[in-house]
Design brief:
The longest helix is centred in the middle third of the chain and has 18 residues. An 8-stranded mixed sheet has the order 1-2-4-3-5-6-7-8, with helices on both faces. With 311 residues, it is α/β, with parallel strands linked by helices. The chain has 8 helices and 8 strands; from the N terminus they run ββββαβαβααααβαβα. Helix 7 links the parallel strand 7 and strand 8.
Length: 311
């Protein structure tokens, strides 16, 4: 089934309620920004990447009169410091940070919204703290399986970085950690342009190379380690999810996180609602995806449910 017939636009851009920093383990300091109403429904937003950081755009899916939107830049990402740091930066560290964040905010439970890697982290957070989750809204879910990486790293486009033993992710991580500045900049720009070529809604301007290096240094580190999900695959762990509403939104033209992953998750967790967004790729800015996100969040604020539409 495609997106709802009536598409909803983004809410107006607004200044954050507040921006602050959270000190966590291993010498990291996270940037946290909050939007909306201080007494609104708490909603945690988890960005993708890994390493991308939270864009203010992500807060605009939420009605600012009804939600308290909490956006945290994960370790090494966005405004968090040290920028691009991979030491003491694992999936387990990120989960510990979310526990620390919720405690610092004094929030008993929250709606969790995530896209791509953020959807993965949202599921892991729900497994880690099932009592803290009221619902899950996930876009373009990434499962970190070998086939997911193979679908992205098309070898003809990455041949110059391919090692003889075929360990492409190891080669990318090594270069992002210890290559020359010129080599790192070349790889980061290639990575960004390849991502844009894979999406139906590409960005129009290349970000500064410093931001690309920060992002892809963290991302290469996580992909090398399969996001620490290789010994305990995410699909095999779904039995521990809390019995809360879970909606999956996935573009039918998503080439970065192929639709088969969302279908596999639905098979393993039949209670999930799976909504196919016709014509959408991976970006959240496709009009149909944007409309489905906003409509889902509006419905949640009104009734504590996402509605009954699914495939």
């Amino acid at each position: 089934m495609s997106a709802p017939g009536v598409l909803r636009g983004l809410y107006p851009e607004a200044a954050p309620l507040r921006s602050w920093r959270l000190t966590v383990s291993g010498g990291h300091e996270l940037q946290v920004r909050e939007w909306g109403a201080a007494a609104g429904l708490p909603a945690l937003v988890l960005h993708g990447g890994p390493g991308s950081g939270c864009s203010p755009l992500l807060a605009r899916f939420f009605d600012p009169a009804l939600y308290r939107v909490i956006c945290v830049d994960q370790r090494g990402a966005g405004g968090s410091r040290p920028a691009g740091e991979t030491l003491h930066n694992t999936t387990a560290d990120l989960l510990a940070d979310l526990r620390r964040l919720r405690d610092a905010l004094g929030i008993a439970c929250w709606l969790v919204v995530g896209g791509s890697w953020g959807a993965t982290l949202a599921l892991l957070h729900a497994l880690d703290e099932p009592g803290a989750i009221t619902g899950l809204l996930l876009r373009g879910v990434f499962l970190a399986r070998d086939q997911d990486l193979a679908a992205f790293f098309e070898l003809t486009a990455w041949a110059r970085w391919q090692r003889d033993d075929g360990a492409l992710c190891a080669a990318l991580d090594r270069l992002m950690q210890s290559g020359t500045p010129g080599e790192q900049a070349e790889l980061a720009r290639h990575w960004w342009h390849w991502e844009q070529s894979m999406d139906s809604e590409p960005a129009t301007a290349e970000p500064p190379v410093e931001l690309l290096l920060q992002r892809y240094r963290v991302q290469a580190h996580y992909l090398l380690h399969r996001c620490w999900l290789d010994t305990s695959p995410l699909l095999d762990r779904l039995g521990g999810l809390p019995a809360v509403p879970l909606r999956l939104l996935h573009g039918t033209r998503d080439r970065i996180c192929p639709p088969e992953g969302a279908a596999a998750l639905k098979r393993r967790w039949p209670a999930a609602q799976l909504m196919w967004i016709a014509g959408a790729g991976h970006a959240p800015t496709h009009p149909a995806m944007l409309g489905a996100m906003v409509s889902s969040l509006d419905a949640w604020a009104e009734s504590g449910a996402f509605g009954s539409r699914e495939c």
